[in-house]
Design brief:
The protein has helices spanning 3-36, 43-63. It is rod-shaped, with a radius of gyration of 28 Å. With 65 residues, the chain is mainly alpha-helical. The termini are far apart.
């Protein structure tokens, strides 16, 4: 087998590997897009909401007098 034929076979195997990776990435992207619309309450988000509420109450308390 010549050097060129070995290089061609190596390229074909790399192409097949890339096709498999691309297929897996497409599956991952479709899964992420399905989950994207679901709202998630993380502890950080809950903390931010609580901070806004407390800040709002503090501002109301300042001007209540």
């Amino acid at each position: 087998m010549s050097d060129q034929e070995r290089q061609i076979q190596a390229l074909h195997s790399q192409i097949e590997d890339l096709k498999e990776e691309m297929y897996q990435m497409k599956l991952d992207i479709s899964t992420l897009e399905k989950e994207k619309g679901k709202p998630v309450l993380t502890p950080a988000l809950v903390g931010q909401i609580g901070g806004f509420v407390l800040g709002g109450l503090a501002i109301i308390g300042i001007f209540w007098i």
